[in-house]
Amino acid sequence: MTRTDKKVRYPLKSKDAFLTPADGAQGVENVLRILEGRWKLVILFHLFGGAVLRFSELERAIPGISQKMLIQQLRQMESDGIVRRIVHHQVPPKVEYCLTEWGQALCPALDALLTWAINKPDADQAP
Hints:
Layout: H1 21-35, H2 40-47, E1 53-54, H3 55-61, H4 67-79, E2 83-88, E3 94-99, H5 101-104, H6 106-118
Antiparallel strand pairs: 1-3, 2-3
């Protein structure tokens, strides 16, 4: 049996083009589970662009977050594969955080979401 994709002269559509509404809803639910939490998006925006920040730098950059909450959010993002934790074995201990390649790929999506939120029409202009 021959493969038909070798005979056609246009690229095959990705499997994502055939998502059902239920598949799409499940995917969005999974994404929201990964990004849920008051501080995760704030942490991500500080780490975008290849920034490598020490724990104390993140703590200073986000004044409203407690140390316990910052640790918890970073650990969750590390276990989800978004953030990478770099431990330098020295005295005093030094721990740095940066985004993984997959985490950095979130940047355009969150940028688009931010642009969408900024361009919200006034209440008077709503149809």
